[in-house]
Amino acid sequence: MSKPPLIPFSTTIFVRDTCLCLHVQRAARALARRFDEALRPLDITNGQFSLMMSLNRPEPPSISAVASLLAMDRTTLTAALKPLERRGLLQVFVDSDDRRLRRLRLTEAGERLLAEAVPVWKRTHEAVDAQLGDTGPDRLRTDLHALT
């Protein structure tokens, strides 16, 4: 005779159908795949696009500022920077006023690649926005922002 489970299967179904974290994770993965596919001809991922876009500022940001913006820890960000740095798309350099700080900037090649990627991102984003309807994109951004 088998013993009854500690957690009934109905609880699994309930969590599957109601868990906001699960639904956001699934949607994030689906969006990531969609943008990865769109950016593949440029040989960058959606994460690399976001990272490069975060460097498109009037003044080169610190590693900490970029990590904060992208909600990443510094170690993960440092690992994500390496392939882009090896490709010559960005530079990591020491701050001239505070030698402890590392700053980031796009190279000319990085700026050119980002300029190519922005129209691809825009087209893909317009398609996603269209799926969400007239007020869907703004509502979704507002709701997601409320969770952060």
Brief overview:
The chain is mainly alpha-helical. 64% of the residues lie in helices and 7% in strands.
SSE arrangement:
Layout: H1 9-18, H2 20-39, H3 46-54, H4 63-69, H5 74-86, E1 90-94, E2 102-106, H6 108-132, H7 136-146
Antiparallel strand pairs: 1-2
Helix pairs in contact: 2-6
Describe the 3D structure.
The chain has 148 residues and is mainly alpha-helical. The chain has a single domain (11-132), classed as Winged helix-like DNA-binding domain superfamily/Winged helix DNA-binding domain (Arc Repressor Mutant, subunit A), CATH 1.10.10.10. The protein has helices at 9-18, 20-39, 46-54, 63-69, 74-86, 108-132, 136-146, and strands spanning 90-94, 102-106. It has a two-stranded antiparallel ribbon with strand order 1-2.
Write out the CATH superfamily name: Winged helix-like DNA-binding domain superfamily/Winged helix DNA-binding domain
Helical fraction:
55-70%
- Report how far the terminal alpha carbons are from each other: 48 Å
The main sheet comes to:
2 strands, antiparallel
The counted number of beta strands is 2
Rounded mean pLDDT is 95
> Under the CATH scheme, which architecture would be assigned?
Orthogonal Bundle
Give the C-alpha Rg.
Answer: 20 Å
Number of helices: 7
Strand line-up across the major sheet: 1-2
CATH topology: Arc Repressor Mutant, subunit A
